[in-house]
Amino acid sequence: MNTFKGPFRIMFEDLRLQFYILAGVTSFLSILYIVLGIFVPSDDKFMVGVSFGPFYGFFLIYPFFFYTKGFKYIISFGGTRKQFLLSSFLNISLFLVMAIIILNGFYFLTDYLVREGISKGTLFHMGNLANEAGAYLYPWIDLLWGIILFSIGFFLSSIWYYFGTLRMMIGLTVFALLAITFITFSDLYAIINSIIGYYLLLVHILAVAGIVMIILSYFIMRNGPLERGKTAGFTVGSGS
């Protein structure tokens, strides 16, 4: 596989199928919420539901399947790890743009129906947590959260593939213990208030951190092992 077209096509075809499925589920949920908003009797507008869940969950979880599906196929057809990484980043970027269009299309449709008095039900959007408003705020928030969730999933999946399941579970256990200790001795009420009060700033900081994680994932895997856990210098288990 001497060109970038082959690896890109492999990732594109798989993500296209996933996009159709998620777009269908999101459309069904959004239409259901619109119907409820129209027919449920209410004097005031009310929050009828959330439609971004399927797409948000996908960005966090699906990177693990990159290494069990796309990576294996690209390498077996003669592709390189760099081609896999670049095709993954490019395809997920296209996927994210299309997801933003669908999510905000339904959000603005629901908002329009409420303004016209046709419906009383509104959709919750992560942009609702911000203290600012604007036509571009909600697509921008979706973009930032897409970057955050994908970067977390891709970074963890890269660590998992590079070091193997056993070593990753040991690391996650240590992290969980530290997190539990921090939560136990912290003022959660103050932390939650800070998150709400500085929501936009926090999301931007997390997105920048996400971009850093994506860059780190690239450097981790550009010369990484061809099999999970087969990292030079580590001999515990077989593909653990």
Uncertain parts: 232-240
Helix and strand content put the structural class at mainly alpha
Cα-atom radius of gyration: 21 Å
Alpha plus pi helix count: 8
What share of the residues does DSSP label as strand, in percent? under 5%
- According to DSSP, the number of beta strands is 2
Describe how the helices and strands are arranged.
Layout: H1 5-39, E1 46-50, H2 53-61, H3 63-76, H4 81-115, E2 121-124, H5 137-163, H6 165-184, H7 188-197, H8 199-221
What do these coordinates show?
By secondary structure, the protein is mainly α. Helices cover 72% and strands 4% of the residues. The chain is built from 8 helices and 2 strands; from the N terminus they run αβαααβαααα. The longest helix is centred in the first third of the chain and has 35 residues, at 5-39. The radius of gyration is 21 Å and the shape is globular. The two termini are 29 Å apart. Mean pLDDT is 82; it is low at 232-240.
In short:
It contains eight helices and two strands. The chain is mainly α and 240 residues long. Mean pLDDT is 82; it is low at 232-240.
Keyphrases for this structure?
mainly alpha; 240 residues; single chain; two-stranded parallel sheet
